[in-house]
Write a structure and sequence with these properties.
The structure is a homodimer. The first copy, chain A, has about 200 residues and is an alpha+beta fold. Chain A contains four helices and twelve strands; from the N terminus they run αβββββββαβββββαα. In chain A, a hairpin with a 6-residue loop joins β2 and β3.
Chain lengths: ~200, ~200
């Protein structure tokens, strides 16, 4: 509390859930649509010092992804070319929650579309903010148990996907060497798998 | 392999690390700058069916974040207002890697700027792709051990931060109830903490 007594922001405080000061939005302006994102410029005011600035928000639909396992505990992954990195990406099934869908419906739809699979049981694993500095959406994580193929793939013209079944050991190896490196996929998998780095040098 | 024999994409395959077909970029066009992001439209061609489409890439600087612990194993978090969600966010220190910096330098700088702290030891925890569908950057995770305060905060005019020290138990409680919900923070913490959901209903 020493800094607080001098009028600075507190470095440490005891009540960790104190409300923090909101930044008033003085006005907002829509930017040029980016298709899946709607840029918005908020003119905001820093409550600490009155400094005014422009903040970018990308209005984004909700997202969903699914940790899918069969009765033997194998994991169902999808591989595809990703335009952001201009390269291949190993991921779990997922995508955008459509208007009028709830996240569970979207998870079931994406699993079916991307892999031709259904699941015996669906369990909500909570949700995360993909990036609270930029995006206004959440990504909902689900665990799908007893997954099995029920139909052929139904890919959009703009998709080119492959499904891969991996054992837990194979999956963990691909996480360890960063062949699987999508942060939102890792966020979902961390709710099911222990992803701590095993190298003792890295441990506390 | 049954689908492959019929000319469809394979649903499962044995060599999990087969190369996947690249999507050629026929031409690219820069969009209107968004400050921290440079939108780029790639005109791409689906290698599966020849379908041509426009893909958005947000060219983005590298990011870094730091799991910071003191000699007693307490975690150093920062709280701030985030414009994407128009609300408060509990995070680990981090930010953009500046031009000419390496990620470790950036981690040390961000820790000092946001908390006034330095560390006895720095350990690389690998890196992730924040979103390979959209962003071309990576986020580098570090573990900083033996963290202690060495100076007052040095906040930009556009920042309003508070630091919080949490025990491991307090931190895990905030992850469990989603008071800490930033995917990239969770990705870094998953390399140090076991984040599996404890509710038995959710376990496989």
């Amino acid at each position: 509390m020493q800094a607080s007594a001098r009028g600075e922001r507190r470095l440490c405080f005891m009540d960790h859930d104190d409300p923090i000061r909101p930044w008033p939005v003085l006005k907002s302006k829509q930017g040029t649509s980016l298709g899946i994102f709607q840029p918005r410029w908020d003119h905001v005011k820093n409550p600490r010092n009155g400094h005014e600035m422009r903040a970018l928000v990308l209005e984004t639909p909700q997202w969903v992804n699914v940790v899918a396992r069969d009765e033997e505990g194998r994991f169902l992954l999808v591989r595809q070319w990703r335009f952001g990195i201009s390269g291949p990406s190993l991921e779990i099934p997922g995508g955008v929650v459509h208007a009028g869908e709830d996240p569970l419906q979207a998870g079931k739809r994406e699993l079916l579309e991307e892999t031709g699979c259904e699941a015996r049981e669906w369990i909500a694993l909570g949700s995360v903010s993909p990036n609270p500095a930029i995006h206004d959406n959440r990504c909902f994580h689900f665990l799908a148990k007893g997954v099995r193929q029920v139909t052929e793939l139904n890919l959009d013209p703009g998709e080119d996907l492959e499904s891969v079944w991996l054992t837990e050991q194979e999956l963990l190896a691909r996480i360890a060497d960063e062949r699987l490196d999508h942060a939102l996929v890792l966020s979902a998998l961390a709710r099911v798998l222990d992803l701590r780095v095993t190298d003792q040098r890295r441990q506390d």
